[in-house]
Design brief:
mainly alpha; 0% strand
Length: 87
Amino acid sequence: MSYPDRHWMVRTQPPMTNLCAGYSDSLYRNRLQALLGVDAMVEAVADYLLAAGKLDSTFFVYTSDHGPAASPLFFLVFGPVSNFSRR
């Protein structure tokens, strides 16, 4: 399948295998679960600040480090998922 209008990395990649698609789905589910945990924690802090009368004078700043696995070059460096092992 050819995608001439896509970025070169997308154009040159073969379709995902079932193994890769399953790993990708699992990865994104885990990320979403982690985000739900952060959401619950922020809600608890906001509720505490509201009860203490401090919420209106509070700013929430959220930053994130996506780590090396979120890089588009991840699979070029480590190869297919089937050959990847965490060290």
